[in-house]
Automatic annotation (TrEMBL):
It comes from Rhizopogon vinicolor AM-OR11-026. The keyword Transmembrane helix applies. Residues 384-413 are annotated as: Disordered. The chain crosses the membrane at residues 20-40, 52-71, 91-111, 131-149, 161-180, 221-243, 274-296, 317-340, 346-368, 482-502, 550-572. This is MFS general substrate transporter. It is found in: Membrane. Keywords: Membrane, Transmembrane, Transmembrane helix, Transport. GO terms for molecular function: sucrose:proton symporter activity. The keyword Transport applies. GO terms for cellular component: plasma membrane.
C-alpha cells in the first residue's frame, strides 16, 4: 500500500479524489469484518466455518494485488499504450484493485483472528495472539529490507519494475501461508441450526443485537480500543512526516531544485529509519514480553507460592496491567513532543512507541479471546448453535450423560445428509458411526445441533448452547474492529481542522497505511516520496516559526491515550479480582 499514492498521482489522479480512494481502508473495516464474522458464525460448510472464506478471500486479495501491480499492462490489452483512454483505464483498474485489496484483506484478518479464538483454549490465547503479533512485527521488519533491494535486478523474471516484483512476492507468500493454515488447522464444524436462512437485514440485526448485549469485560475492551486508536492513528500516519519536518527546520534552506530534492530524500530516509527502529523494538517486545505474563491461575495462587517462585515468576504481571502500562508509556512519549526539537530525540521517542505498538497488537486480542471463551451464555443468550470442541479426543459429558456427546469415531463417508441421518440412530448405532475427514484433517470433527428429532438420541443432546459466546466469535471480533476503525474517521477530520488552522498548505492525506512505510531506494517511488508529493511546502524560511501542526495532533492523541490508560487500569483491577 506504500506504493498506492505515488502510483496514482503519477497517473494524474487529483488529490481530492485520492481522499475518496483512501476511504477504502476504514470503510472495509467498518463494514466487512462484522458482516463476515456473522456470516461465518452461521456457516454450515463441511470444511469448517472460517477456512472456506479464508481461502476465497485470500485468492481474491492476491488477484487484486496482482492487478494493482500490473494495472498498466492490463489496460494496455484493451487500449493503446500512451493514450488518454489507457491512462483512464489504468487509474480505474488501480482504484478497483485498492478497494478489492482492502475489502478482501479485512475479511482475511477477521477470519484469522476468529480462527485463533475457535481453535485455542483459553489458557493458550495469550501465547497464540503473541505469536500473531510476532508475525506482524516480523513482516514489518522484513518489509524494510525488501524495499531496499533492487528486486528487478535479482528477480527479473517476475517483473520489470519494483512494484511488479513486490506484488508477486507478496501474493505468493500470502496465498501459500493461508492455504497451509487451512490444511493444517483443526476447526470446529457446524452441522445445522434452527435459525433458517438469513438475509442481509437479519445479519445486520444480529450484529446490532450482539453489540447491545456485549458482556461488561468485552464492552470495556472495545471502549479502551476506541480511545487508544484515536491516539495511534496520528502516529501511524504522520511519524515519518514529523521527523522529516524536524530535519528540515534545522537544515539550511535549499538554494536550488537539486538541493531541495536532496533535502526531501534525506528527510524521508530519517523518517523511515525511525519507523524501522520502532519495528525492531516491536519485534523484540513481542518475543520477550510474553515470558513476563502471569496466567490467571498463577495470579490467583501467587501469594501461596511466592516463596518458591523464581525471579522470573516474581516479576510476572497480568496482561491487562501490561496493556495499561503501554498506554501510560505512550502518553509520556506524546508529552515528549513538547520538548523535542531534534531528529535524534524524536527518533528515540518514536522507537519507544514500538514497545506500545507490540502490546497493542497482542494484549487486547488475547484479552478479548479469553473473555469470549470464558463467558457462559444465559438462557436469554442461548441460540440453537452447538459446536463440539474438535481440538481434543477426550470424551465430554453434559447434563449427567454417561455416554458423552463425543463418542463417535471418524467417518469414511463425508456426506452431510448421511451424517444427519446417522445422528438420529440409536446410541448403539451411533457408536459405530464415523465423522468425515475435513480438508485432510483427520482430527476435525463435525458439531451437533440442539434441535434434533424426537427420539432416543434427544436425551444425549445439550439443552442450550454450552459454547457460550464462542459461537459468536466472528461477530464479536467484527464489532471490536468497528471500535478500531471509527477513530480513523475522527482523526482524519480532526487533522483536517488542525492543518487548516495551523498549516493551511498541508494535506490531510497520508501516504501509506499503518505500519507499511518503506524506505526510499534509488529507482522506485515509495511512501517517503508520497510525503513530498502530498505536502505543498512553502519555501519561505518563516515557515519554521509556525507551530508544528503534527505535534499538536500527537499531543491530542496523548490526551486520548490517557483516557485509555485510566479505563485499562480499571479493567486490570477488575480482572485481577475475578
Amino acid at each position: 500500500m506504500s506504493y498506492a499514492s505515488p502510483y496514482l498521482l503519477s497517473l494524474g489522479l487529483s488529490k481530492p479524489f485520492m481522499a475518496v480512494v483512501f476511504l477504502a481502508g476504514p470503510l472495509s473495516g467498518l463494514i466487512v469484518q462484522p458482516l463476515i464474522g456473522v456470516l461465518t458464525d452461521h456457516s454450515k460448510s463441511r470444511f469448517g466455518r472460517r477456512r472456506p472464506l479464508i481461502v476465497i478471500s485470500a485468492v481474491l486479495c492476491c488477484a487484486a494485488t496482482l492487478l494493482f501491480g500490473y494495472a498498466r499492462s492490463v489496460a494496455t490489452l484493451f487500449t493503446s499504450s500512451g493514450s488518454s483512454s489507457n491512462n483512464s483505464l489504468t487509474i480505474w483498474l488501480a482504484i478497483l484493485s485498492i478497494y478489492c485489496i482492502d475489502f478482501s484483506i479485512n475479511a482475511v484478518q477477521a477470519l484469522d483472528r476468529a480462527l485463533l479464538v475457535d481453535t485455542l483454549p483459553t489458557s493458550e490465547q495469550p501465547s497464540g495472539n503473541a505469536w500473531a503479533a510476532r508475525m506482524l512485527a516480523t513482516g514489518s521488519v522484513l518489509g524494510f529490507f525488501i524495499g531496499e533491494l533492487d528486486l528487478p535486478r535479482w528477480l527479473p523474471f517476475l517483473g520489470r519494475v519494483q512494484l511488479e516484483v513486490l506484488v508477486v512476492l507478496a501474493s505468493l507468500l500470502f496465498i501459500s501461508t493461508h492455504i497451509l493454515t487451512s490444511l493444517c488447522v483443526k476447526e470446529r464444524i457446524l452441522v445445522a441450526t434452527d435459525s433458517g436462512s438469513k438475509g442481509l437485514k437479519k445479519e445486520i440485526r444480529n450484529i446490532w443485537d450482539t453489540l447491545t448485549r456485549l458482556p461488561r469485560v468485552i464492552r470495556q475492551i472495545c471502549y479502551i480500543q476506541f480511545f487508544a486508536w484515536i491516539a495511534w492513528f496520528p502516529v501511524l500516519f504522520y511519524t515519518s512526516v514529523y521527523i522529516g519536518e524536524l530535519h528540515k527546520q534545522v537544515s539550511p534552506p535549499p538554494g536550488d531544485g537539486s538541493s531541495a530534492t536532496a533535502l526531501e530524500e534525506e528527510a524521508t530516509r530519517l523518517g523511515a529509519r525511525a519507523l524501522f527502529y520502532s519495528a525492531l523494538v516491536s519485534l523484540t517486545t513481542n518475543i520477550i514480553m510474553p515470558l513476563f505474563i502471569a496466567h490467571a491461575k498463577e495470579t490467583a495462587t501467587s501469594s501461596l507460592l511466592q516463596a518458591k517462585n523464581t525471579w522470573l515468576e516474581r516479576v510476572r504481571v497480568h496482561l491487562a496491567t501490561l496493556w495499561a502500562f503501554s498506554h501510560f508509556l505512550f502518553v509520556l512519549c506524546m508529552a515528549g513532543t513538547f520538548v523535542v526539537s531534534s531528529v535524534g530525540s524524536a527518533t528515540f521517542i518514536m522507537s519507544v512507541t514500538g514497545f506500545c505498538w507490540a502490546i497493542t497488537q497482542w494484549a487486547p486480542f488475547s484479552l478479548l479471546a479469553e473473555a469470549i471463551l470464558s463467558h457462559s451464555t444465559t438462557d436469554e443468550e442461548t441460540t440453537s448453535i452447538y459446536l463440539e470442541d474438535t481440538r481434543s479426543n477426550r470424551r465430554s459429558t453434559m447434563g449427567g450423560d454417561e455416554h458423552g456427546a463425543d463418542e463417535t469415531q471418524p467417518l469414511v463417508d463425508s456426506d452431510i445428509g448421511e451424517l444427519m441421518s446417522s445422528r438420529t440412530a440409536s446410541p448403539e448405532q451411533e457408536e459405530d458411526c464415523h465423522y468425515p475427514r475435513i480438508m485432510m484433517n483427520n482430527e476435525a470433527r463435525v458439531s451437533q445441533t440442539d434441535q434434533m428429532p424426537d427420539d432416543a438420541s434427544l436425551l444425549h443432546r445439550p439443552k442450550k448452547n454450552v459454547n457460550g459466546l464462542s459461537s459468536q466469535a466472528g461477530a464479536i471480533l467484527g464489532i471490536h474492529n468497528m471500535f478500531i476503525v471509527i477513530p480513523q474517521f475522527l482523526v482524519t477530520g480532526l487533522s483536517a481542522i488542525i492543518f487548516a488552522i495551523f498549516d493551511p498548505q498541508k494535506s490531510v492525506l497520508h501516504g501509506h497505511h499503518p505500519g507499511n512505510a518503506l524506505p526510499v531506494n534509488g529507482t522506485i517511488t515509495t511512501s517517503g516520496d508520497v510525503t513530498a508529493q502530498l505536502l505543498d511546502r512553502d519555501d519561505d524560511p518563516s515557515v519554521t516559526a509556525r507551530p508544528n501542526s503534527i505535534a499538536i495532533i500527537f499531543r491530542l492523541g496523548g490526551v486520548s491515550a490517557t483516557v485509555a490508560f485510566v479505563l485499562c487500569w480499571r479493567l486490570a483491577r477488575e480482572l485481577k479480582r475475578t
